[in-house]
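agent> fetching stored inputs for the magnesium ion docking request
agent> found them:
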Amino acid sequence: MTEKITAVKGMNDVLPKESHLWEWLEGQVRSLMKSYAYQNIRTPIVEPTALFVRGLGEVTDIVEKEMYSFEDRLNGEQLTLRPEATAGVVRSVVENNLLYDAPRRLYYMGPMFRHERPQRGRYRQFHQMGAEAIGFAGPELDAELILMAHALWQQLGLKDVRLELNSLGQPEERAQHRQALIAYLEGHSHMLDEEAKRRLYSNPLRILDTKNPELQTLANEAPRLIDFLGKTSLAHFERLKAILDANAVPYTINPRLVRGMDYYNLSVFEFVTQSLGSQGTICGGGRYDYLVEELGGKSSPAVGWAFGVERVLELIRAQELVQSAHSIDCFALVPDAASFPVVFQAVESLRRLGLKVQMHSPAAANAKTAVEPEQGADHIPPVWEQMGSIKSQFKRADSSGAAYALIFGADELSKGAVTVKALRDGEGAQRIELLKDIAQWGKALQSSLYPNS
Ligand code: ATP
Ligand code: MG
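agent> prediction call returned; pasting tokens
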């Protein structure tokens, strides 16, 4: 046997036993987005490196050490696998002039790439679902987005999710705070770690966000940005809080919440949980009023968030909010391969009614042991006609989770009929249906299984 090729470290397959949860979550988010009138946008996974350097800021964890950047060896372009989607969405909005007549509410879902140390809740390819409202200045959009995320956690049944909120004010207010902060940190320079020293003049605000426990007290006692905010910034923050209060969305103010990208101003927020250990942030977002202009568009205020799909699914598992796996409705047993033309007609008519139907087919594994027909020995059927015993087919039907087995035996077919056997309701009821009536039978089954569809 040749050597196996394995997946890239930190990049995972989503296998069928998990993927039904992913599909379920995607469905939940799509219907949520529709109810808030957000439209889907799909941007490329690869973007020019400059987009992220300019958009996220040079002195950020992502740009400094987490990006998968490479040179296209065919034309020398500098490219990057997207580490997040906001920059790409804004690029697209500007490039395609999407703001020409009205602001936009957009959402996306898809893979992101960051070269981090893989661990629980932290991967090199991970997935985000996110929403962006572009071209709106008012705090009601910050509130709309937060309410929407809050509604999603409720809809999913998540417990133990807390909202943390802060305001970063405007650039001039940040500049004043920055001066005070640098002065304070210079006064304690002997306590700073390497990273903090490096960021002292380039991005001191990020020092407040440090994960180093030895810097916690220093960060706690540092000048607070919120004390430097002017009237307008404070009013924006107050209005947002008033909407959250009126709608019973609980939050705590975290004056040290700054977030990882440079593009934020005014409101920033995170949804965090205790149930996931140290990777407890499931969703982050905030206002980014200067990014559109920074990326070459007409000045347009905006706000958005993104949540980590793996972390939300982990939370769903941790809290045992089990969703039922995909199941099928009917399993067709086919004793004789020659019946397939008729079997197909029947199962296709059931599928068109919206029923989930699986058809027995011999597994390729049989091919290993099967005797190939020799020339002239035409009484040995080819492997693909060796259907296996009815008993083994029944076993498969049973483990498939189907509600009904449809048995297309020779006897039945000769009378233009099929045997229908209930697999789940104890008594194992069995009866004959005429093939020409199978759609009728299917309709009745469909409306009993899916009364609301
Ligand atoms: P963290 O502080 O955990 O590194 P972050 O601030 O870098 O998070 P954001 O850039 O705000 O994360 O991304 C939004 C969400 O995407 C996070 O809250 C998290 O749920 C998820 N996320 C971020 N990085 C990863 C990763 N490497 N693997 C899995 N999920 C991630
Ligand atoms: Mg990070």
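agent> quick read of the result: The mean pLDDT is 92.
agent> awaiting further instructions
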